[in-house]
Amino acid sequence: MLPRPQPEIRCAVELILRNARLAGSPGAAPPPGTVDIGVENGRIAALAPHLDGDGETYDAGGRLVCAGFVETHIHLDKSRIIGRCAPESGRQARAVARVAAVKPQMSVEDVHARAAQTLEAAIGHGTTRMRTHVEIDPGIGLRGFDGVAALVEEYRWAIDLELCVFPQEGLTNNPGTDELLVAALKRGARVIGAAPGYDTDHAGQIRRIFELAREFDAEIDMHLDFGDTPEAMDIGLVCDLTEQYRRGGRVAVGHMTKLSLVPPAELARIARRLADAGVAVTVLPATDLFLMGRDQDHAVRRGVADANFLVEHGVNCSISSNNILNPFTPLGDCSLIRMANLHANVLQVSGAGRLRECFHMLTARSARLLNLADYGIAIGNPADLVVIDAETPEQAVAEIRHPLAVWKRGRRTVTRPAAELHRP
After folding, report:
1. Residue 245, CB half-sphere, CA atoms under 13 Å: how many?
2. Which domain holds residue 163?
3. Which DSSP symbol is given to 141?
4. Listed residue (19, 16, 103) closest to 55, CA to CA
5. Do 54 and 76 fall into the same domain?
């Protein structure tokens, strides 16, 4: 017997995205078949196998459609400065010092122009939500913050941008930085970060950041436990303070390269502690690969934390870009799919389910890390939609398949034609 055709549902919408194959939820296989997505007033108004309406239509042709990619950890303020920084000397990257040397030359206008270029590259690769970290210290004052903050309104048509202010060059040992962080929080920064590895008092910086987060009701997103040996981790203190301040689900840590240097049993113990405390982890494959193992001239350690392992032990994880074209990472194109593919290669991730989980670390899991309550393809949510030239999330990651079209709140923001072969 032939299957009974599905009836068309009539609805008044501005846009119908037809024949969309959805990515599904973390930990589950994608739903079978395709759906039509109806959009009205910038929000998803209908989901059904067949919608009928008079609005604009786009045929996804059975391709993968997801909510927009979420970049949880990037540095717009210091992107695209590699050409003005001193070159590397030998095997030591000295990235912090090389960036610090050019900060006095960075005007608000300069930061704004470079950050906008990087932001547009991310938009072109399907990113519709972003948390950017911004350095605050006496070397640059609030110029970096001002240059990036201006982009929030300018690019609201394509992306929701959130600022995380943090002390890259130290806090307890860098007079004037604390006052600048407070000033940025008073001017609207919703997230505060940390980089205790560059402070003479790791614990002192971490404790002060938690105090500021409580005072301003800010989210916390730290650079943590970046190093070539597993000793002296700060993550235990972060988990303790997360519980003490009752901030579970509102704390994230980035890098965590030291996790790549501990055996599986110890890593599982740390993962359970992270999960119990409600601390999420962002893995940054490009930067961690580029900077780790600089003390070695052969058999160089990879230094990338295994996000799949952490997820499988209950930790929420995202995969993100971190730096673009600067001494921390003099490479990059803002493609999150490429980051997921890089992570899968480095950590030797295979199998449809685990590759699919890498995709969710760019989408649903990243949205959870940022506490985005209105994320995902569901009726009532903003119509932030990306059509990817793939059929499944795992194919998108394995083959670095690019977005073909992007909508932000129901308005088309990106069109990328599929490659076309011209046969003889």
Report:
1. 27
2. 69-369
3. B
4. 16
5. no
Please list the pLDDT of the chain residue by residue as tens digits (424 residues). 444 455 566 676 999 999 999 999 998 889 999 999 999 999 999 999 999 988 899 999 999 999 999 999 999 999 999 999 999 988 999 999 999 999 999 999 999 999 999 999 999 999 999 999 999 999 999 999 999 999 999 999 999 999 999 999 999 999 999 999 999 999 999 999 999 999 999 999 999 999 999 999 999 999 999 999 999 999 999 999 999 999 999 999 999 999 999 999 999 999 999 999 999 999 999 999 999 999 999 999 999 999 999 999 999 999 999 999 999 999 999 999 999 999 999 999 999 999 999 999 999 999 999 999 999 999 999 999 999 999 999 999 999 999 999 999 999 999 999 889 999 9
Whether residue 214 lies inside any domain: the answer is yes
Q: Which residues, other chains included, contact 405 with Cβ-Cβ below 8 Å and sequence gap of 6+?
A: 58, 386, 387, 412, 414, 415, 416
Bridge partners, 226 (sequence order): none
Instruction: Kindly give the interhelix angle for 264-277 and 235-244, rounded to the nearest 10 degrees.
Output: 20
CA–CA separation, 241 vs 223, rounded Å? 16
Task: Characterize 131-166 residue by residue with b for buried, 16 or more Cβ atoms within 10 angstroms of its Cβ, and e for exposed.
Answer: bbbbbbbebbbbbbbbbbbbbeeebeebbbbbbbbb
Clarify whether residues 44 and 149 are in a common domain: no
CA 56 distance to own-chain centroid: 31
Distance, in Å, from the CA atom of 231 to the CA atom of 228, rounded to the nearest integer, reads 9
User: Which alpha helices (DSSP H) does 129-195 contain, by range?
Assistant: 143-154, 177-186
User: In terms of domains, do 110 and 21 share one?
Assistant: no
Nearest in space to 192 (alpha carbons), one of 225, 170, 216, 224: 216
Report angle CA 78, 81, 85 to the nearest 5 degrees. 115
> 2 lies in a domain?
no
In angstroms and rounded to an integer, the radius of gyration of the C-alpha atoms of the chain is 22
How far, in Å, CA of 219 to CA of 190, rounded?
6
Q: Is residue 4 included in any domain, yes or no? A: no
Residue 421 lies in a domain: no
Q: Any idea what the CATH number is for the domain that residue 387 is in?
A: 2.30.40.10
pTM for this one?
Answer: 0.96
* Structural domain ending residue among the three candidates 354, 369, 384: 369
**Same structural domain, 408 and 292:** no
Q: Which two tokens stand for residue 351?
A: 């199998």
DSSP designation for 78: T
Q: Decide: 330 and 98 in contact? Cβ < 8 Å.
A: no
The answer to whether 245 touches 278, Cβ cutoff 8 Å, is no
Give the bridge partners for 386, in sequence order: 66, 406
